[in-house]
Design brief:
The complex is a heterodimer.
Chain A: H1 3-26, H2 32-44, H3 55-76, H4 82-91, H5 103-114, H6 117-128, H7 133-140, H8 144-164
Chain B: H1 3-13, H2 22-79, E1 87-91, E2 97-106, E3 110-113, E4 130-134, E5 145-152, E6 158-165, E7 175-179, E8 188-196, E9 199-208, E10 212-214, E11 218-223, E12 235-240, E13 247-254, E14 258-271, E15 277-283, E16 291-297, E17 300-306
Antiparallel strand pairs in B: 1-2, 2-3, 3-4, 4-7, 5-6, 5-8, 8-9, 10-11, 11-12, 12-15, 13-14, 13-16, 14-15, 16-17
The chains are: A mainly alpha, B alpha+beta.
Protein name (chain B): DUF4871 domain-containing protein
Transmembrane segments (chain B): 48-66
Keywords (chain B): Coiled coil, Membrane, Transmembrane, Transmembrane helix
């Protein structure tokens, strides 16, 4: 199979997972540009993909970098004068919370987005995406122990946050 | 995992999973294919340009040889150039500005992201996260080793500042790397000589600020030449470790007879890139006389010279 066929196969197989991940990770519903960017980067970095590793975790790791870069760029907008910033902010797409029907779920969702980055990483991958400890470890380039411990702490943190309300 | 956490875990798993419609999938795939084709065409175009350049080179090589003796002399002069390298914009692939005036180096060749951050002698933090951006032929950059040595203008002292492997570009450059520099041991003018894949690539000249005012465990985020009489602004004080005290007292003594004391309030605890906890305090250091002062924090004293 040549490079193009491989990429196409990966796309058909994993684009859904990438989209899902990006929606939760970036907290917005329109993530098409990010999905596109992710596969483009994968194409460019194809030679660096080690045959042994799993394309799914490799692609999610790239998607995560895409999202982080985008967030960093967005952070620069904060230096704009306030009125301009407000306008842009109101145009920014937010996740349609109606998709998450139960109020209880909404509450949890908000709490997840208040977590610090390492907790949020592991909660989205392990919890929402239902990936295994091994897969999560590969995406974040952590040890499996670190994934388990951090996930445990994140859950504990979510519980105390709820209590505090 | 206890029962409550299990419940939480279960709830997470019930978050909606977003599907991709067939149409959406096909449209995205077509977009990606188009983008890839576009990128490939551009690659081809650059390789045509390169082969044309090679032809020109062969054509003009004899002339070059002829004038080389002169040029060589001039280049030697240039290598000793100690003028500070400028900062410039980092552009994205589409030509839009990613960072305004934030990359220092040789425009169109190589630079590092400075982004308004001061590089301070002896300070690990200001050089802990450095981005290199390199422009050139991607195949000759990506995956290759970048080696930067730094030479001090005043003393001639030099050391290995950084060695890293170049990665794929992030924005409009052709290769990039995220790495850490070794801290600069001395203030002053430093020249960074950069080699890529064993070949000399470019030099960048920078100004390194004098050390922060610091004792063994506490650092004021203020370099010694920023300390003036009547300094009004708040100063951050970093103390190693996770400290319990909500307030710290900083004492400043002039000439053994005149003493001032300042209260620093705790503002945050964070972890450095090497995962060491540090506590941040905030307060003032408004000294009323120029000259030699002794500043004491947590029973440690440092001598400073205050300018008028």
């Amino acid at each position: 199979m040549d490079k193009k066929e491989r990429m196409e196969e990966w796309f058909l197989r994993y684009a859904k997972d990438i989209k899902n991940f990006l929606i939760y990770y970036t907290n917005q519903s329109d993530v098409e540009d990010f999905v596109q960017e992710c596969f483009l980067r994968a194409w460019k970095g194809f030679d660096r993909f080690a045959e042994k590793s799993d394309p799914k975790t490799w692609l999610i790791a790239i998607a995560r970098n895409v999202a982080i870069d985008a967030a960093r760029k967005k952070a620069l907008w904060r230096y704009l004068p306030a009125p301009l910033w407000k306008k842009i902010k109101s145009n920014a797409p937010a996740l349609e919370t109606s998709l998450i029907l139960q109020e209880e779920m909404q509450e949890l969702y908000r709490a997840i987005h208040q977590l610090k980055r390492s907790y949020r990483d592991v909660v989205i991958l392990r919890g929402i995406m239902e990936l295994s400890v091994e897969e999560t470890a590969r995406i974040l380039d952590w040890s499996e122990t670190k994934v388990s411990v951090t996930f445990h702490r994140a859950l504990a943190k979510l519980r105390t946050q709820k209590k505090g309300e | 995992m206890d029962e409550k956490q299990h419940e939480l875990f279960g709830k997470m798993r019930r978050f909606p999973k977003y599907d991709m419609t067939f149409n959406e999938q096909q449209r995205l795939l077509a977009n990606i294919k188009r983008e890839i084709a576009h990128a490939e065409r551009q690659k081809k175009r650059t390789s045509i340009i390169i082969s044309m350049a090679a032809a020109l080179f062969v054509l003009f090589f004899p002339i070059y040889i002829f004038t080389q003796t002169n040029i060589e002399f001039q280049q030697k002069e240039k290598a000793q150039d100690w003028t500070l390298s400028p900062t410039f914009d980092l552009l994205n692939k589409d030509g839009s500005v990613v960072y305004h005036n934030a990359v220092r180096g040789v425009k169109g060749k190589i630079g590092f992201l400075e982004n308004g951050m001061k590089i301070v002698a002896g300070d690990q933090e200001s050089v802990a996260k450095m981005f290199w951006y390199v422009w050139g032929e991607e195949q000759q950059l990506i995956g290759k080793t970048l080696r930067a040595t730094a030479t001090h203008k005043e003393t001639g002292e030099s050391f290995l500042l950084n060695e890293t492997t170049l990665q794929a570009p992030l924005y409009g450059e052709n290769a990039s790397a995220l790495t850490s520099f070794q801290p600069f041991p001395k203030e002053g003018i430093w020249k960074l000589d950069i080699h890529i894949d064993g070949k000399y690539f470019a030099s960048i000249v920078i100004d390194v600020l004098p050390e922060y005012i610091q004792t063994k465990q506490a650092t004021f985020y203020l370099t010694s030449d920023e300390l003036y009489t009547g300094l009004k602004q708040n100063i951050m004080l970093k103390v190693d470790g996770k400290r319990q005290e909500d307030k710290l007292t900083v004492k400043a003594v002039y000439n053994r007879t005149h003493q001032l004391s300042f209260t620093y309030k705790k503002s945050a605890v964070y972890y450095t890139t090497s995962r060491q906890p540090v506590t941040l305090y905030e307060g003032k250091l408004t000294l009323d006389r120029a000259g030699e002062w002794k500043i004491t924090v947590l029973n440690e004293t440092v001598k400073v010279h205050v300018k008028k």
